[in-house]
Amino acid sequence: MKLYFTAPSPNSYVVAAVADYLQIPLEKVPVDLAKGEGQRPEYLKLNPNGKTPTLVDGDFVLWESNAILLYLAQKKKPELWPADERSGIDITRWLIWQQAHWLHACGTLLYEHLVKGILNQGPPDPAEVKKGEDSVKRFGAVLNQSLEGKKFLVGDRLSLADFAVASPLPYARLCRFPLEGLPNLHNWYERVNGLSAWQKNLPQAPGM
């Protein structure tokens, strides 16, 4: 299998981390979106969105990170995808929540505090920073409450939900996520962050 990825992107390194955890070998092909490589005709044939990651498995091409995570997990069930139906639905719920709410909230601060500087797009917009901080506080509280008395998000074992929801958190310090007073969230992330597959695929950026 071949993975087209952008190393600093949470959506990319989480796929690489899950593949490593499941011991699924991937040929990694970097795509520099800042240099316009995502808009090259040959790449757009694979992913018409011009974004990463994209997985190619023979003649099967798949984009959207959480769909790729599901595809990888199905190959190694029940390692990160429990056999019982309700747990599977619960994991799916967290994958949807992560894309609809959590990643959007964290991504606002990631963009304002990091990406804009990389792309020379000027300083952070205080209004956007405030929106991002409010959203991270709101949904961080939801995550913290959901982890009360639990080691992981679904059941008592690591699952795809933990990888997906944890994906923006390596940038928490650098991009100033307001996560104070959320002990369950911090304890849970320490468990995810301690995984060798996670550490191996973390982006390298100053201040992280």
Short summary:
By secondary structure, the chain is of the alpha+beta class. Helices cover 51% and strands 8% of the residues. A hairpin with a 2-residue loop joins strand 3 (54-57) and strand 4 (60-63).
Can you offer a commentary on this structure?
It is a single chain. This protein has 208 residues and is an alpha+beta fold. The chain folds into 2 domains: 2-75, 3-Layer(aba) Sandwich (Glutaredoxin); 85-201, Glutathione S-transferase Yfyf (Class Pi), Chain A, domain 2, CATH 1.20.1050. It contains 8 helices and 4 strands. The protein has a 4-stranded mixed sheet, covered by helices on one side. Strand 1 (2-5), helix 1 and strand 2 form a beta-alpha-beta unit. Helix 1 packs parallel to helix 3, helix 4 (85-118) runs antiparallel to helix 5 (126-146) and helix 4 (85-118) packs parallel to helix 6. It starts with a strand and ends in a 7-residue tail after the last helix. The model has no long low-confidence stretch (mean pLDDT 95).
| Order of helical and strand elements | EHEHEEHHHHHH
Cα-atom radius of gyration: 17 Å
Quickly count the domains: 2
Main CATH class of the largest domain: Mainly Alpha
What features would you highlight for this structure?
four-stranded mixed β-sheet, 8% strand, 208 residues, 8 helices, Glutaredoxin, 4 strands, alpha+beta, Glutathione S-transferase Yfyf (Class Pi), Chain A, domain 2
